């Protein structure tokens, strides 16, 4: 009975989610390649990349969350067959993302001017600074691509963003090889070369999406709405009302990891390098879960446009089942290879041993990570996003960060102690998101029965 109930939802979510996950896997492969290449170039470069990447992960994840405000709007309009309005929403989405990009670049510039005050190893600052500036220049292209990606996924076209992401990542990996190590007559730029390659790939991805949008037959009616309609204050405001809460929720989650990285820096370069290795591995699971959860948001927003709360509830349940399966698929091989995984990124034995100690905390937080991914996106699908900010603040700042400091420094468990805080934060967030979604769907179904 239960299998029959969810079978169609499993099929639909996999059809939507697999291309998103493949695109996310491409991003992970890129992260692996970046860390692997930089790690083999030098431990100092790996440690510097760890710090800078984690600072930028915070704003990139926030900006990605902000762009997710497009999904429930586009999804509901798609369910109501309103392509002209979808095109107008994309135009407003690009404008809103551009404004956010400028704001984030200003904030990150202030951080750059104070990077020496964050108590990081002094000898890493000359490596951090130029790499930081190049990544700063690439932020605007991240947000523009995100807007196009969420538009495409909202109309169930998940394959176009997938192929663009995979192509951009291939360009980035080739650029890394050329510019980090100085191959084929290119200058040997080390960590800076990795940053330049990232910038170029992000520019190419945006240009590619613009060309496809303007020329592809599938996008013709949406292009008409995009070109004919003007920027609309109501639509712009709605995007901000939905985008800010989701961006802040995701940003606070990432901030807990980024602020933890500052604490890790107090433990030294070896701890920073091991931390970066496991964060890179950890992103593998997170991106898979979020890829499937993004499909949950798309399906739920479609059903929301039709006011079909029974299918909204069943879609969220089916999505969580699939994410649990993904969590098992991630955790088992990592546990079996825990003593080998570090060698992919570094030949430093101390880094490898320390990374192996982080595998158990990593496995412990997979359930919570999957739970919070699924139900935060389910709430996004029904456009109930304001409460997630409070839940995220409690989970990541009131619970996770103090627990990390307590375990890491008061109990003197070091890097492993900091990582043991992650299951507390992610699981508490997931439980709060689940309770909120369950309450909303129960009330909606009760009202539907009463009518």
UniProtKB/TrEMBL annotation:
<dbReference type="GO" id="GO:0015297">
    <property type="term" value="F:antiporter activity"/>
</dbReference>
<dbReference type="InterPro" id="IPR048279">
    <property type="entry name" value="MdtK-like"/>
</dbReference>
<keyword id="KW-0472">Membrane</keyword>
<dbReference type="InterPro" id="IPR002528">
    <property type="entry name" value="MATE_fam"/>
</dbReference>
<dbReference type="Pfam" id="PF01554">
    <property type="entry name" value="MatE"/>
</dbReference>
<feature type="transmembrane region" description="Helical">
    <location>
        <begin position="417"/>
        <end position="437"/>
    </location>
</feature>
<keyword id="KW-0813">Transport</keyword>
<keyword id="KW-0812">Transmembrane</keyword>
<dbReference type="InterPro" id="IPR050222">
    <property type="entry name" value="MATE_MdtK"/>
</dbReference>
<feature type="transmembrane region" description="Helical">
    <location>
        <begin position="12"/>
        <end position="33"/>
    </location>
</feature>
<dbReference type="GO" id="GO:0006811">
    <property type="term" value="P:monoatomic ion transport"/>
</dbReference>
<dbReference type="GO" id="GO:0042910">
    <property type="term" value="F:xenobiotic transmembrane transporter activity"/>
</dbReference>
<feature type="transmembrane region" description="Helical">
    <location>
        <begin position="192"/>
        <end position="214"/>
    </location>
</feature>
<feature type="transmembrane region" description="Helical">
    <location>
        <begin position="388"/>
        <end position="411"/>
    </location>
</feature>
<feature type="transmembrane region" description="Helical">
    <location>
        <begin position="53"/>
        <end position="74"/>
    </location>
</feature>
<feature type="transmembrane region" description="Helical">
    <location>
        <begin position="349"/>
        <end position="367"/>
    </location>
</feature>
<dbReference type="GO" id="GO:0005886">
    <property type="term" value="C:plasma membrane"/>
</dbReference>
<keyword id="KW-0050">Antiport</keyword>
<feature type="transmembrane region" description="Helical">
    <location>
        <begin position="160"/>
        <end position="180"/>
    </location>
</feature>
<feature type="transmembrane region" description="Helical">
    <location>
        <begin position="318"/>
        <end position="337"/>
    </location>
</feature>
<feature type="transmembrane region" description="Helical">
    <location>
        <begin position="242"/>
        <end position="267"/>
    </location>
</feature>
<feature type="transmembrane region" description="Helical">
    <location>
        <begin position="94"/>
        <end position="115"/>
    </location>
</feature>
<keyword id="KW-1133">Transmembrane helix</keyword>
<keyword id="KW-1003">Cell membrane</keyword>
<protein>
    <recommendedName>
        <fullName>Multidrug-efflux transporter</fullName>
    </recommendedName>
</protein>
<keyword id="KW-0406">Ion transport</keyword>
<feature type="transmembrane region" description="Helical">
    <location>
        <begin position="130"/>
        <end position="148"/>
    </location>
</feature>
<feature type="transmembrane region" description="Helical">
    <location>
        <begin position="273"/>
        <end position="298"/>
    </location>
</feature>
């Amino acid at each position: 009975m239960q299998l029959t109930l969810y079978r169609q939802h499993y099929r639909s979510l996999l059809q939507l989610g697999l291309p998103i996950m493949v695109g996310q896997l491409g991003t992970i492969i890129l992260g692996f390649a970046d860390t692997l290449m930089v790690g083999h170039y030098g431990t100092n470069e790996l440690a510097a990349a760890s710090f800078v990447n984690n600072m930028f992960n915070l704003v990139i994840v926030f900006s990605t969350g902000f762009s997710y405000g497009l999904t429930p709007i586009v999804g509901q309009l798609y369910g109501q067959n309103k392509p002209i309005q979808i095109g107008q929403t994309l135009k407003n989405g690009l404008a809103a993302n551009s404004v956010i990009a400028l704001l984030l670049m200003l904030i990150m510039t202030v951080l750059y001017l104070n990077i020496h005050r964050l108590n990081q190893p002094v000898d890493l600052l000359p490596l951090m600074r130029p790499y930081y500036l190049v990544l700063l220049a690439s932020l605007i292209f991240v947000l523009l691509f995100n807007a196009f990606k969420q538009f495409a996924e909202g109309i169930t076209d998940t394959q176009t963003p997938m192929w663009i992401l995979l192509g951009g990542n291939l360009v980035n990996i080739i650029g890394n090889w050329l510019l980090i190590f100085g191959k084929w007559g290119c200058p040997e730029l080390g960590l800076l070369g990795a940053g330049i390659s990232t910038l170029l790939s992000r520019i190419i991805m945006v240009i590619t999406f613009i060309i496809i949008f303007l020329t592809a037959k599938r996008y013709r009616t949406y292009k008409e709405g995009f070109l004919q309609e003007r920027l609309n204050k109501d639509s712009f405001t709605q995007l901000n009302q939905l985008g800010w809460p989701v961006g802040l929720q995701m940003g606070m989650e990432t901030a807990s990891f980024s602020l933890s990285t500052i604490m890790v820096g107090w433990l030294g370069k070896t701890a920073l390098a091991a931390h970066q290795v496991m964060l890179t591995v950890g992103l593998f699971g997170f991106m898979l879960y979020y890829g499937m959860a993004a499909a949950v948001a798309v399906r739920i927003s479609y059903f929301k446009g039709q006011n079909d709360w029974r299918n909204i509830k069943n879609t969220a349940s089916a999505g969580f089942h699939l994410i649990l399966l993904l969590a098992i698929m991630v955790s088992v091989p990592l546990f079996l290879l825990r003593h080998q995984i570090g060698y992919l990124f570094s030949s430093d034995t101390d880094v490898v041993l320390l990374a192996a100690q982080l595998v158990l905390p990593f496995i412990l937080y997979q359930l919570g990570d999957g739970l919070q991914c699924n139900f935060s996106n389910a709430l996004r699908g029904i456009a109930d996003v304001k409460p997630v900010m409070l839940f995220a603040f409690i989970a990541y700042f009131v619970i996770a960060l103090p627990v990390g400091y307590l375990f890491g420094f008061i109990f003197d468990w070091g890097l492993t102690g900091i990582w043991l805080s992650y299951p507390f934060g992610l699981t508490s967030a997931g439980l709060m998101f689940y309770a909120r979604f369950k309450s909303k769907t129960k009330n909606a179904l009760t009202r539907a029965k009463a009518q």
